[in-house]
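User: Some background: our group keeps a shared notebook of sequences we're curious about, and every so often someone picks one and asks for a predicted structure to add to the entry. Today it's my turn. The entry only has the sequence so far, pasted here. Could you supply the structure so I can complete it?
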Amino acid sequence: MLVLSTAKAQAVSEKLSRKIAGEVKEVNGSPIQGASVRLEESSGAIAQQITTDVAGKFFIEAPAEGAYVLRVEKAGFRNETQSFDVPLKTSGPLVVKLTPIKLPGARGKSSEPMQFSDSTDFTVAGITDWTAAGGHGSDVNLRTSETLANDTRGLAGEISVGTGTGTTANSGALLRRRNQLRKMLASSERADLHRQLGDVDEQLNDSLAAVHEYERATQLDPSEQNYFDWATELLLHRAIQSAVEVFTKGAAAYPGSERMLAGLGAALYASGLYVQAAERLCAASDLQPADSTPYLFLGKMTLAFAQPLPCAEEKLARFSQNQPENAIANYYYALAVWKKAGNTTASEQVESLLNRAVRIDPKFAAAYLQLGVVYSARGEIDNAIAALQKATAADPNLAEVHFRLGQMYKMGDAAKAREEFQAYERIQKTEATVVEQQRREIQQFVVVFKDQPQTSPMREP
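Assistant: Of course. Here's the predicted structure to add to the notebook entry:
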């Protein structure tokens, strides 16, 4: 009895050591009700997610000892994250202080753009190597945010701009064009000339000069084009909160701009505000329901994020209905249904959508992969292996396929399992090298916020 009592007491003690109590406040000390508090494992998986009560308090429990990230989000505030180990090394509640984001209210219609009289809350002070920068959530979410940033730049429609990987025109011609624009600006300062100079500077990899040109263009003429170019430049160079601010101003001035809402969604996703990001994309899809762009952004978010996103299933269903012979539309809708329903609840509908996707595009490796996931969840191992084999035949460099095949083969063929796991590790290393190189080629903006109190540590003495 003594041994059992001791073991039970130890188990209770360990469980208590994993409980985390905390409070979420504004920087002035006021409690924040309804803030999202998410506990993430080191892998990026969500361990638990709750909201704060009327007093701004929360209680959350880690599933086991180890390293965790606590992420706190609330609309209108800058999100906060903190890494720590469980059990906590110090006693007392965690205190998370959120700083309000100064955002303009909605003004006028697209024919009456807001004047740029309310100055921005930041200044771009320099550039640095992005490899030292952190990200939000798992590496999958971080890579998705990078993809969305590049996709947003593709919506500009006027010029293809490099981000450190070379120029789109002869450098000599670009230098001559830059000198010509500077001379023209010396005699007549015009917004369109500043924007063109920003394009040239970016192609010459002078990103710091480019962002200031885009900013000046917007100050002189707060047009939809100028807002979009400036905000996108900030997003491309990982000045995330600044991009959110400018996209928000642009969306307020031009509520009918689909691409402005899409860009805002991409910026919010990059800042870790996944729910708000999805909501902006859903709103963008309502402006022009026949346009694919917002659905493609929303689908990429759905693929990367572990939990179902609000409104994603409804909007992606419309995408699939509007374009029934579009493989990617059926695939993204299948993912949304699968994540919302969970496990095998809607597996037949998901299977039907995925089979339609691979009928339309027989080389759609990602759809075969998801079919393998569905069959595996239903315990149909032979079907799962067959689908995963089709996936790897369509794309032998899809790492997750090899990992899942390795898991399947472990039950009966150790040699094949080992081969698949080795392929998985090899592809993962190659992908990591490529991503690292791409990130080294990106100049990250160093942003200084004006009149901004320093963020307080999460724990108060």
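Suggested note for the entry: The mean pLDDT is 82. Residues 104-308 form a domain with the Serine Threonine Protein Phosphatase 5, Tetratricopeptide repeat fold (CATH 1.25.40.10).
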